[in-house]
Amino acid sequence: MTTIKSSYRGELRTEASHLQSGTTLVTDAPVDNQGRGESFSPTDLVATGLASCMLTIMGIVAERHGWDLTRATASASKVMAADPVRRIARIEVTIEIPGTFDAQARAALEKAALGCPVHATLGSSVEMPVEFVWDPA
Question: What is the pLDDT of residues 82-127, one digit of tens each?
Fold first, then answer.
């Protein structure tokens, strides 16, 4: 089990520590919610988690088959809603995969991305349209 410990640092900032590795990161409230927007917001980390999770699960499948995904990227854009409560309403993800992949490989990688644990966790509570761009110029 992984444990993350977060500490409030004042001025709407937190510092989170990944206890297993010792890695830390800082969050800041976004400008549209009384913060300075000088770092990832907690909801930015949710969008980041989705994009990173999708690439990671695709990477697991790619390594199993000997496919090279080292230059693949994922961009996530978060849309907030305020009614009835402030929450993430939508995370739009674009995944760009350079290289040549046949239809079977593409289907396997897309299925892997859409089956990542973060996508499954967010489920129907957040819209998550995903665009796959194969061999972008």
Answer: 889 999 999 999 999 999 999 999 999 999 999 999 999 998 899 9
Longest dimension (CA), the chain: 51
**Cβ(82)–Cβ(117) below 8 Å:** no
pLDDT at 137 (0 to 100): 67
Domains and CATH numbers, the chain: 4-33 (no CATH), 42-134 (3.30.300.20)
Nearest to 122, CA basis, from 48, 25, 17, 21: 48
- Is residue 18 within 8 Å of residue 2, measured between CB atoms? yes
10's torsion region: left (phi>0), alpha (psi -120 to 50) or beta? left
Read off the DSSP letter of residue 98: -
Give, as one character, the DSSP assignment of residue 124: G
Tokens of 50: 């989705």
